[in-house]
Write a structure and sequence with these properties.
By secondary structure, the chain is mainly alpha-helical. Helices cover 76% and strands 0% of the residues. It has helices spanning 13-30, 36-60, 64-86, 96-112, 120-151, 153-161, 166-179, 183-191, 199-206, 211-241. Helix 1 runs antiparallel to helix 2, helix 7 (166-179) packs antiparallel against helix 10 (211-241) and helix 8 runs antiparallel to helix 10 (211-241).
């Protein structure tokens, strides 16, 4: 009987993984991207962290307090990761605000309307998807907004001389650049089913769900991600304009 699995667990799998890691690191190094070592460390961390989660997840999903603690841990890591991409030091923790602003209301809406249950086995992956999207959106929006303000400082000062308030002057310059952080989520939503078949859809099909059920689940995930990331980007841009990250 054929196993319904996306990845074949064979003895060749570790060799293929090592080859992919080496390829990514080598290309980053030869291409002078500045992330050759980062590719290696990121892959190593992914292996260790997924191994730890695989051992803990069975226990975590049986306890709501444990699941809540796990979600809070995911939130802290997402906020720290996004923040340090924007700015070094203690100011990086301000990234917790946009990550929470994007994730919390969307998660509350999904749970409050009964679209998702509050069972740990559902709450953890949905929260993880939203946190991951908000982490990326916050990081991209914050970096682009901060860089834009640094490069176009003269234009900010010109706006101030025309009577703009500091926040409004900064927003005029950095908002268009920061808004580009929503483009990846928009493209993913626009092309779903035509270019990509995302993990939630494929996972549902492999788990035995009907194509209609899988499609509905994936649609909910994509729409929720768009809403969460839009919120995170707006809050991030406003905080950069107010000087929290600069």
């Amino acid at each position: 009987m054929r196993s319904h699995s996306l990845i074949s667990l064979t003895p060749v799998l570790p060799v293929a993984l090592l080859a992919l890691v080496a390829l990514g690191s080598l290309v980053a190094w030869l291409g002078h991207l500045g992330h050759g070592r980062a590719v290696l460390t990121a892959c190593l961390r992914a292996a260790v962290q997924l191994g730890a989660v695989s051992l803990l997840i069975t226990w975590v999903v049986t306890s709501f307090p444990a699941a809540t603690g796990f979600v809070l841990l995911m939130f802290a890591v997402a906020a720290f990761t996004a923040g340090r991409r924007i700015t070094p030091g203690r100011a990086a923790w301000w990234a917790a605000v946009p990550v929470a602003a994007g994730t919390a209301p969307v998660l509350a809406l999904l749970a409050g309307t009964g679209v998702i249950s509050m069972e740990a086995i559902v709450l953890i992956p949905v929260a993880g998807i939203l946190l991951g999207g908000c982490m990326t959106a916050t990081s991209l929006a914050g970096r682009r907004a901060v860089d834009e303000l640094r490069q176009r400082r003269g234009e900010v000062e010109a706006a101030l001389s025309l009577g703009f308030l500091p926040r409004d002057a900064a927003l005029e310059i950095c908002r268009p650049a920061a808004s580009q952080a929503l483009v990846p989520a928009l493209d993913q939503t626009r092309t779903v089913g035509l270019v990509t078949l995302p993990g939630a859809f494929v996972g549902m099909l492999l788990g035995g769900a009907s194509p209609v059920e899988a499609g509905v689940v994936q649609l909910v995930v994509l729409v929720a991600l768009l809403a969460a990331e839009a919120l995170a980007i707006v809050v991030t841009t406003d905080m950069v304009a107010r000087g929290y990250f600069t």
